[in-house]
Each structure stands twice: as structure tokens, then as C-alpha cells.
Amino acid sequence: MKTWRMAFLAASHERDCFSFIDLGFIFLVDATFLRDYDVVPVPIPEGTVIPLMRCNLLTFELTFDWNDVPYSIPSKAGETSRTLRGDLLALLERQPDGTADVVLIAGPDRHHVHRALLSARCDYYRHLFQSDFADARATEFIVPDDPAAVRIFVRFLYSDDADIPADNAIAVTEMANRLLVPKLFELGVAAVVASLSASNIAGIRVWANRRGYSALSTKLDTWVEA
């Protein structure tokens, strides 16, 4: 047996549910415990959102034996735990679904993205949106970079990762540098280094020096063909 002293978020309607968190576990408790204190905790999957309206804060002492808990939340066949990355990528793949409020235009592509996420992930757009320029309130932006690089950039915004083909490495690196996205820049540099060969290193060294990419230039100076 174990006793928890809990802070419950209590909804205003008798049939609503309560939630509390202890030691990393999230429980769902039926509101009928207010009448008879007969409480059965039910574990729910991590990340589950429990909507509560017009909540009050209660304090309640709960004693039970975890081994006696008879309930569990069944999972669907083949269902895996949801992640923030997975949910954001699913959100991106649903576009346009009416939730995006900015369109990035690159060549023939129109990328519907979310202003808040774009601002949080990209310093260039964050500074733009917070400025007094007329563009700060625009809903469509023409992106002058290579369309393939822009597609990689948009997916990076939602996934925090990028699979950069060798043919797009330079374009992605330049775009990430221009838009002030440090992690994507690092991924671009890594892709450039991975694409090095005896036939292209001289040209890439000239390009890196002209752009002032000192970190990349250092890597080029120490590169040895495998």
C-alpha cells in the first residue's frame, strides 16, 4: 500500500474527470470519488491531453496498492507512442488544412507553414515578424533559395532534422546561414564535408572562403580522401 497526497484539478461537472501527476505517472480518476472516496487510478499514455473546464484546485490523500489496479488503457494493434516530432510532421503533411497562416513560395512550390513555429525555429523570420516593416504582417513570402533546399528547410522546421543529398548540400548551407538557422547550417556543413572528393574540394574551398565559413574551411584543411 502507498499513500499519495495529491493536488487534483477538479472540473465543475459531476461526470467530468480529474487528473494528477506523481512520480512520472499520469492518472485519470473518475469524479465520483467526491461522493464515496472509492477511487481507482487508471494509467493513461504519456502525452495524453485531458481537457478540464472551469477547474478548481483540490487536495486529497489517496491510498491504494498499485498491484490491485484492474484497469489499463488498451492500445490499437500496431500503434506506437506518439512523439512531438511525429505529431509536427503529421501536421506538416496535412497542409493546407486551414491551420497554417504563412505561405513560403519557392519556384513552383507553395509551403503552408505556421507563423509561430517559423518564428520559434528561424531567427530571420522571428526578427522580421517582430519588426515594424510592412512585411512583418504579410502572409506570403517569396523565398529566393533553391526550391529543393526550401523543401528541406521546411521539413527541418517541423522535424528538427534534415536528410541532405550531396547535390543540395551547398544550397541548404547557404540558405541556413542566410536565415539564421544554426543547426541546419551545421547539418549542411556536415553534408558538404560528406560529399568531398579530390575532384571537388578545390572548388568547395574557394566557395567556403568567399562565404566566410571559417568552420567549414577548417574542416576542408584537414580533409583527407578515404
UniProtKB/TrEMBL annotation:
Pathway membership, UniProt: Protein modification; protein ubiquitination
Domain BTB: 100-166
Superkingdom of origin: Eukaryota
InterPro entries: ABTB1, BTB/POZ_dom, SKP1/BTB/POZ_sf
GO cellular component assignments: cytoplasm; ubiquitin ligase complex
Keyword Aminoacyl-tRNA synthetase on entry: no
Keyword Phosphoprotein: no
Keyword terms: ANK repeat, Repeat
Classification via Gene3D superfamilies: Potassium Channel Kv1.1, Chain A
CDD domains named in the record: BTB_POZ_ZBTB_KLHL-like (cd18186)
Protein name: Kelch-like protein 20
Organism whose genome encodes this protein: Tetrabaena socialis
